[in-house]
Amino acid sequence: MGVGIKVEHLNAWFGKTQALHDISMDVPANHATAIIGPSGCGKSTFVRCLNRMHETIPEARAEGKVRMGDLDVYNGTAAVQIRRRIGMVFQKPNPFPTMSIYDNVAAGLKLNGFRNHKQLDDIVERSLKLSALWDEVKDTLRKKSGASLSGGQQQRLCIARALAVEPEVLLMDEPCSALDPISTGKIEELIFQLKEEFTIVIVTHNMQQASRVAEFTGFFLLGKLIEFDRTEKIFTTPSDKRTEDYITGRFG
Amino acid sequence: MRTRFQQGLDDLRTRLLRMGGMAEQAVDRACQAYIDRDLKRCHMVLEGESQINVAEREIDELAFDLLAMQQPMAVDLRFILAVTKINSDLERVGDQAVNIAERVMDLVELPVADLPVDIGRMATATAAMVRRSLESFIEGKAELAQAVLEMDNVVDRMRDEAFISLVKVMNERPDVTRQALDALLIARNLERVADHATNIAEDVIFWVRGADVRHNVQQENPPQEITRRVTGI
To answer: Which of B7, B95, B136, B192 yields a CA-CA distance of 20 to 30 A from A209?
Structure first.
């Protein structure tokens, strides 16, 4: 099951430049939450702070409280443990090119020392089924490499890889921006189904996509969270003029 | 700024205002035709109906295109939805004007009867509601629209009074039953026009405030009024 994420007074920097200013937000469990905003507003930085990927960039740092269920992300928990519980899918599909489809999905588990072949088989199958890729690859699992798949399939493979370690939260940073409408539709349908088992946070530039897949939406501008509310409220009657101006295309 | 989209919204607004002008003029003409027993004005109302119908279709098509092609959000989405509903109400206002004109054409064939009903006063009140509802749309001001909602009770009361007195006339003076019936139907038509003006005012409030105030249910949404940027005023 997914868990909620409680963010309190989160600030982030790249060197001396502050990228996030005092962000507080409750991401509800087992729902999809969309993060929208113009380029450079801090939305990707925000999600990368949730699993401490932000600090992997030289001179980047973050301060504040992020609680994910019982886990205190910024206080006393190893980053690797956090990333095991918070999966991430990126803008561009990034399967391990030389590995088979099977090994791509099993990579995280193997890295953690998981060696039970029968259980591995089961987890790979379950993950590929969850990511709606199983039917398309089940006959070529060990024969084909991850890189041989189409862009949309590769992205679903990356989702399967993220799901294989059984995270509670799935972060998706513009997961459809490199995909065609058919593949995008499949990923969106997938997000809809995955909500039952995971908490999803999706960064997107596509506002129609946010309105289609997410129950909650946060609008970021210049590193600040301007408005966070139910998606239908954000897209029909936003409370803040800046949100309205952005979603109606008057700037951004 | 999405220039093409903004031009589409401006075009929609202009067309709706033109249609509002036609519907308002139709009601004025029909009421003046009643007062003056003027067949010429009745014919003008009947001939004008087709123009209103054409305008209704054009506005719906444009709104449909904007919805499909531009995927409007928030205030723009509310504006387009409000326009389509106001469009429909204005077309119905035009229909009511035609109904009034037809009743006048019937009345002109009959002897003049002194009836205890002031259709002129009711027409003035109704026309004011239509005009103000359109003004609230032009200005994008919810408070103007709110004032229209409060006027509706006045016209309802006039209709009720007309009903009581005209039914009495029909009972007591059978020789003017047809005239009384025509006047009664005109009073009802005017009351319907007032209802459409009320609907228009409610749609303006929805557009400007995002609040659904229909059927006396207040569902106020945003704390901050976002208004008139669509119209560029």
So the answer is: B7
Kindly list the residues from chain A whose CB atom is less than 8 angstroms away from the CB atom of residue B76: 248
Put simply, the answer to whether A239 touches B5 (Cβ < 8 Å) is no
**What is the number of domains present in chain B?**
1
Q: pTM for this one? A: 0.82
d(CA B118, CA B39): 20
Locate the domains of chain A by residue range. 5-94+168-247
State which H helix or E strand residue A103 sits in: helix A101-111
Locate the chain A residue with the closest alpha carbon to B2: A249
CB B140 within 8 A of CB B227: yes
Q: How confident is the model at residue A122 (pLDDT cuts 50, 70, 90)?
A: very high
- Chain A partners within 8 Å of B78 (Cβ): 236-237
What interface predicted TM-score (ipTM) does this complex get? Answer: 0.73
Of A235, A239, A251, the CB nearest to B222: A239
Instruction: Give the residue from B165, B156, B206 showing the smallest Cα distance to B184.
Output: B165
pLDDT digits 0-9 by tens, A190-200: 898 899 999 99
